[in-house]
User: What shape does this take?
Amino acid sequence: MNVRITLATARRVLTQLGHDHRTVAMLLVVPCLLITLMWWVYDGGPVWGQIGPALLVVFPFIMMFLVTSIATLRERTSGTLERLLSMPTRKLDFLLGYALAFGVVAILQAVLASVLAITLLDLEVAGPVALLLTVAVLDALLGVALGLFVSAFAKTEFQVVQFMPALVIPQILLCGLLLPRADLPTVLEVISDVLPLSYAVDAMNEVQRVSEPSVLGDGTVVLAFTFSLLALGATTLRRRTG
Assistant: This one.
């Protein structure tokens, strides 16, 4: 890994994003709008208090997965990745640069959505707000890592979208958003135990309900999945789409 090349890659990606106002708006504004819509649907009642914390990790996770995977795929299909890898840039430098760039966006996204939910949408949080923000950021970074990993296997943007029902939607259904994981059928509960989004939702629920939450275990699992996906992405990333 070359730190200089990694930072240069991150700077290039951030510069490109800065000129793409629609993508920036989608990344930063859409999650806030979706969370506000859910608050409106439930009229800020008890159900909102139950699902609100999970939404703070689910929506950023989805958005970062989609944008990161499609942006990385475009680098490969346009030939940019092949040109970069013909120079001193290595696959890990490329992926880490993308992870850093989209990580900055993920932090902004998670902070905006969390602050909105707490200040304007009356989401009650028993634990430290800083810890809630940390969990939201970790999950957004997980979406970045999963998007980078998936982009290595897709040949078109349509194929990227096809990974949604395979890798993302099952996690949403089993993470505890719709039903507490303990109430799931035994087989589904076992499956949910090996899905990273489940641990992000568990950590967020812990922060919301407990004044002195302990999220080290769940947070460590999410981080482990994130780094593992980045490492796998570095080994499977192709120079170009064949």
About this structure: Residues 18 and 24 are 7 Å apart (CA to CA). Residues 46-77 form the longest helix (32 residues). The chain has one domain: 3-236.
